[in-house]
């Protein structure tokens, strides 16, 4: 049977034409030589302009480092901040790449589960209890990956209070799914200006601009950290291609129309998945506020809760789903949420319909 | 006065049209999504084909990792090979980025000077004396940067013997200026097939394909090292853009005509620089076998040897050159050759002529 890839972290959208035109213009101008390590001035300015226009935050372009994708931005940041044995607190489920990135920089992950029954609301008390003198960093994805949770301003205010109470604590806010929210736009952590010496943001073009193959991301960080990150970028990769950055500039300048068109496609799909899941009571889920994933709790389909089940673990369940009905989803075990899977709905309509039929046939 | 940039590690050539066409074709095919961490199959195959056709080396494409430039390939390699306190032997002068890359991976640089009076010939006895049980790696640039030295097959045979005598010693051969030799093509270290479990090659598209802004390089390494390098690439940058790789494929396929056209431009320029330097006896130099740099020993222009000189150090001399006649060259102090500078001649003819006049006026 053909396989439907609902496990991928990439949408079915092609890169917007305006971005390709940005590249073509750069080629016409022969912009094929090494660029600055920090990134091109035009992309750093476009990023700063975005935060000014969307969030009302005056941000000097000198505080923006362009990186080889958002993962690379996180890597440079963690290498520049962490010392061995520093503790890093994250809310689970989290993006699966974080644990390796943290341990590569010598940090120790402390995972705090957020409750799906409460819509993955910020678990303030658990967070407070987890923060010790060894805690150097809190990583927050907003919108969440895989949860699609958009934190309210009130929740983020609580995070800001945590920073006020713990003067050595930093926050890295991963905002790479911003723009793809269905209702309230996410509130960037950068808005807490009085804490800007300890607040950093990572973002990029792979998700909300459908530019995963262009490898452009960025880091906004306090100057001291940014300088170290820039020095490390210089030592290890020199810098990012000015050609792909020229494409990213145009994407950023046209972000509102790009986000609008993506959401017009994704919103009815999110609705369709909800309707289909409502008919599969064994799978519990939370409707994402943003992005294109559902996180499904499949524990009611495993042997521990269902003695008729053939599957002991979520990995076995996902293998069964793949082998029997050709549907690929991503077990969330390494996202800190055993018993759950991440399922993307960023697929063409007819494929999504087939996927939902297959899921229902497999589970019921 | 206008500044003439002879300090840069980049030529005046634009990226070849065939490479740009490779990118255009990939855009038409919508190849804008994440590619494989290892690199695209077509680029890995094109690299393998190059080594088969140029060097007669059968190389499985699975032994090729595509990286975000050659510097990144070196970084991934050193991170995958070195343990803290491992010694790394290099012949000086060497590429200025190596010391930082080595120390970032915990290695200790042991620098062995090669003698310009002997044309930077391989100093075998000094090398032998430098290799201890702590020596993990010998790094060789062939063609040399900044020297432009192409090692003879006999010299490389001696390196192979060193490996035979020291069963824990590895070699990294930096071959990024290959293709730009004026006479005998460099002999790739990969030809020593019986030592392939300890021989690695780094190469890329920035120099001999004029694609510095595309950020594509590659590492050819023993499988065990390559696996670690690939895992680290996955953790830190996911992979390289399939778009820029598509351009690199076409460049590689058309390498002979590209190299030919670059050398037809560079060879008379090398000749002109030689003629001009012959009239400036205070600057001693060796004519490069490959590439587009002259390494000039300027110590006869410094105070220690010339009491009339205004300049104590090569940095002061280079500043004087820049400020008085608008000529930028690169002091070789951090290339392990104090008293020398690196000077590129990859410039348009009329600019090169002006540069040579300025140099003569300044020195004489």
UniProtKB/TrEMBL annotation, chains A, B:
It comes from the Bacteria. Its EC number is 2.6.1.-. Pfam families: Aminotran_1_2. GO terms for molecular function: pyridoxal phosphate binding; transaminase activity. One of its GO terms (biological process) is amino acid metabolic process. PROSITE patterns: AA_TRANSFER_CLASS_1. Its cofactor is pyridoxal 5'-phosphate. Keywords: Aminotransferase, Pyridoxal phosphate, Transferase. CDD domains: AAT_like. Residues 14-356 form the Aminotransferase class I/classII large domain. It is an enzyme of class 2 (transferase). Belongs to the class-I pyridoxal-phosphate-dependent aminotransferase family. This is Aminotransferase. It comes from Nibribacter ruber. The lineage of its organism: Bacteria, Pseudomonadati, Bacteroidota, Cytophagia, Cytophagales.
